[in-house]
Amino acid sequence: MIVLGDQPQLQLSTAASLIQEQETNPAPLIIPSYQMRRGHPWLVRRELWEEILAIQPPKTLRDFLQSHSSQIHYLSLDTPTILSDMDTPEDYQKSRP
After folding, report:
1. pLDDT tens digit string along 3-41?
2. Is the pLDDT of residue 42 over 70?
3. Residue span of the structural domain in which 51 resides
4. Residue 67: its H or E element
5. What is the DSSP string of 6-65?
6. How many domains does the chain divide into?
């Protein structure tokens, strides 16, 4: 799984849903979506790990996804936290309960 460090509100149910989906879906990339928007974390099958680890600038993971767009299975979830991230102290303060 590729999990971003600036998404501390990742829900266990999101990770569990991705793992459950990969048990019956052979797609090499399973990515959650919320209201037709791609989110995180991504479940990446081992067959693609080497390619990800070999990415060198100026290439990014977005380039990787674009080159594998036909291999992505989007798992629709009713979980907006897959789109949320915290980039600043202000973002953190806004998200506190």
Report:
1. 988 887 889 999 999 999 999 999 999 999 999 999 999
2. yes
3. 12-95
4. helix 61-67
5. T-TT--HHHHHHHHHHHTT---SEEEEEETTEE-S-BEE-GGGHHHHHT--TT--HHHHH
6. 1
